[in-house]
Amino acid sequence: MYSKSLVFAGITALCFNSFIAKGQDLLHMMDSAQNTPATVKPELAPTWKDTRLIDAQTTKIPAPAVMEFRIMHRFGDVGGNGNGGFHTLYGFDIASDILFSFEFGIVKNLMIGISRSKQQELIDLTAKYKFLTQKVDGMPISAAIYEDIGTSPQVNASFYSGAPANTPPNFADRISYFSELIVDRRFNDHISIELLGGLSHRNYVLANVNADNNATDENNIPFAGIAGRFMFNKHSGIVFDYYYLFSQYRTNNTASPYSLPFSIGYEVETGGHVFEINFTNASFLDENNIIPNTQSSWLKNEGFKLGFSISRVFNL
Q: Is the predicted pLDDT of residue 77 greater than 50, yes or no?
């Protein structure tokens, strides 16, 4: 009986270890680095655990024949000066935005994706190409290009709200674009930083004027940003992102104040899943809305919101 118990315990331990190992293997399914000959300088371990860091894209690319599915949710204002406070359970009763997306690894270092978000009912087609990869002894950075084209199927009454009554509907008005260059570096096992720069373009904007400087709302909004992560251990850490906008219309606009998007959160991987919980002043989850439309301020009681995201990778 004693020997049978030992055999059973040994088999159970082996099965459990196998399950854990397979779960941890899922965390590397998105890593597009393949085994390379000894003559090629080795790549570092993946800088990022996910293709996205709160509201910022990363240089992470799903491996070929791997799909990443993501759900993101942003609640309402926490503070009572907005629509938060106890009567909405500090924003938990309100969904500021909801997004789900599918991203597919096509070939090494190239992915395409599709997403849908609640705000403006945006449907986005995306692509990302990683053209530089940080190496242990050689290339000091990684870099990628990210492209997004979105369309809003809102009914005309909602989409053209605020426009003159005789504005003729045009499908091209509903198209928006987002282009971004991402450059990052993993400095050590704890610190990774990325720099962002690009352009947000909307085909249609209302001709609103900032009375403080006579600037009209722009179709094109250049931006720069920074994002990063500090790891406590191999599985969890603090993450953040910040965008700076080059927009005269949004500068010192007292009639319709705009704020620079800033987010901070906690990220953890759990055997195939990556989970983030965050606080941010951005009401939106899609870059085509985050860049031009962030108006809440961290400095005011109503300005920040709780959000979360969870992603899962699958072999196809």
A: yes
